[in-house]
Design a protein that fits this description.
The protein is α+β, with helices and mostly antiparallel strands. The protein has 13 helices and 13 strands. Strand 3 and strand 4 form a beta hairpin.
């Protein structure tokens, strides 16, 4: 079994995640597809405190990223949206590997009532006859008052069920509203649409996970296939290890073994880049990995009640090389084109001047990415660092 130090493990993880260097996937629209194809799944989020998470993750790795490029790929049929493990974008070449998830949704829920089934059939018939629809195209059909955020009205529930079951697919309009349409209008006949076997599906999840995570426990890999009950991830993983297609490794200080693909070797020298990460970035998906590999404790506090928040509503981890140096609670004031930084909280480490400069450079790019022109620093736990950052930020571009 291969043994790795924590530093070597971090190098493998960051290279797999596209954070070993700036522009690791290149630049321009081609880099967007290359990155999504490498990731296999790009999580989508609707929070707009700053630019939405899927765009944020792409912009972190593609310096000249424009949000319209992702929309172009969807329109061209090279990328599609589905609720595979969560809502996200997938490369169309992997379409068939969403079929087990759709089958699981369709067969695992309780039977529909006649009213529910009739409504779904009516909606599907309407789409077949008239074309794409939105929720707003249906009359308000709620019979009782709403009881909460997720208490959708019947037409919305029916549309979402048809989407999860694979009877409909979706794209987004300019205001990010879902537009529901038939799969035949999204998926080319050249795309393989054959249901994979349980073994094929498991191998796909294993390879995809290790490709983007670098190192992973069995539970990490299984998490991505959790929608498909009774999956054979563990059995296939064991078989791939025996064949030498997957390597089992041990990382210093960690009890359980991990897995990696052959060739996912660590870099002798780590990155010196600084990245402002989304809470939904692949590096941050499993919080315990941040603690195990990076000695960084992180929680997405928008799901925490305000009195218990420590760092802010939407705190963004800041990575310098292979070390998390700070977290930044930010909000884009789009009306005034100002990025408000409510709290810039530094970790208890000493930062070099070159790291400060690289952070300022990353922050300037982040301000521009959020369609802002200026930044408003409100609070920090390190006034010396904040003073230096403010001074450099106000100067000429670095």
């Amino acid at each position: 079994m291969l043994s790795l130090t924590k530093a070597q493990a971090r190098s493998i993880i960051l290279k797999a995640a596209g954070l070993a260097s700036t522009a690791q996937f290149g630049q321009g629209r081609a880099a967007v597809y290359q990155m999504i194809a490498h990731f296999g799944f790009l999580q989508l989020d609707t929070n707009t405190v700053i630019e939405r998470a899927h765009h944020h993750v792409l912009a972190t790795r593609i310096p000249d990223y424009r949000s319209g490029w992702l929309d172009d790929l969807v329109e061209e049929g090279r990328v599609f949206e589905y609720f595979a493990s969560d809502a996200g974008y997938l490369p169309m070449k992997d379409f068939r590997f969403t079929l087990p998830v759709k089958h699981a949704f369709e067969t695992s829920r309780k039977p529909f009532t006649k009213v529910e089934a009739d409504l779904m059939n009516q909606i599907l018939d309407r789409v077949e006859r008239e074309g794409p629809v939105r929720v707003g195209d249906f009359e308000y059909d709620r019979l009782e008052a709403s009881t909460g955020w997720w208490d959708w009205r019947p037409a919305k529930v029916a549309l979402e069920r048809l989407y999860l079951d694979g009877k409909l697919m979706i794209r987004r309009n300019r205001t990010f509203q879902k537009i529901y349409d038939l799969p035949m209008n999204f998926v080319s006949t050249e795309i393989n649409q054959e249901m994979p076997t349980a073994e094929e599906y498991a191998r796909h999840i294993i390879y995809r996970t290790l490709k983007v995570m670098g190192l992973a426990h069995t539970k990490d890999i299984s998490w991505w296939a959790r929608r498909v009950k009774g999956n054979v991830i563990k059995q296939e993983l064991s078989g791939l290890v025996e064949l030498g297609a997957v390597k089992q490794v041990q990382v210093e200080g960690l009890k359980d073994p991990l897995f990696m693909l052959p060739g996912q070797e660590y870099l002798p020298e780590g990155s010196n880049g600084v990245f402002i990460l989304s809470p939904f970035d692949i590096v941050n998906v499993f919080r315990y990995r941040l603690k195990d590999f990076f000695n960084f404790e992180y929680q997405m506090e928008c799901i925490v009640r305000a009195p218990k928040r420590k760092f802010g509503y939407f705190s963004l981890p800041i990575l310098a090389g292979d070390t998390f140096i700070a977290r930044m609670d930010a909000k884009a004031d789009r009306k005034n084109k100002v990025l408000i930084i409510h709290n810039l909280h530094f970790e208890p480490i000493n930062l070099r001047s070159d790291q400060i400069l690289r952070f300022v450079s990353a922050l300037k790019a982040f301000v521009f990415f959020n369609n802002c022109l200026d930044v408003d620093f409100r609070r920090s736990n390190n006034k010396l660092y904040l003073a230096e950052i403010t001074h450099v930020f106000a100067g000429p571009a670095s």
